[in-house]
Amino acid sequence: MVFAVGLMAGREVRTWDLPGGAVEAGERLDEALARELREETGLALAPLPQFLFVQDGVRVRGGRRTHAWRSFFFRAKADGEPRAGGEVLAVRWLLRRELDAVLTAPYHDSFAQWLRHGGSYFTAEWREPG
Fold it and tell me: Rounded distance, CA 45 to CA 93, Å?
């Protein structure tokens, strides 16, 4: 888990999150996974991450869709001890039973559903007032 600063409803919010980020131009998904993990936690990705599920999400502000995203979730092993890097303020390992209490951002719904019921495809909607 990483503790990071992000924007929610136009204001700065500090929240626990999962390591992740965008795939850069010309980059494969596995390369992006390794890069984001290294940048945010300092951990080196071990070979063969296991695909878990995909999430298609939309963000809606004031009743209007402002953007959409697609996230891929993996189970991965990493070498080393995590350390905060980049925009990340802190890192820590969490027990599975702790996740519901700390993963509270609207885009975490799919991950919480996967933890409870499994599955391979989820949709998410992040609604904000106008």
Answer: 16
Give the residue extent of every domain in the chain: 2-128
- Tell me the whole-structure pTM to 2 decimals: 0.86
DSSP, res 5: E
| Cβ contacts of 43 within 8 Å, gap of 6 or more | 37, 78, 79, 80, 81, 82
Q: Which two tokens stand for residue 128?
A: 């904000």
CA distances from 64 to 59, 125, 126 (A): 8, 12, 11
CA-based Rg of the chain, rounded to a whole angstrom?
A: 15
Domain 2-128 has CATH 3.40.50.10490: no
Residue 3: the pLDDT is 73
pLDDT digits (tens, 9 = 90+) for 57-72: 999 999 999 999 999 9
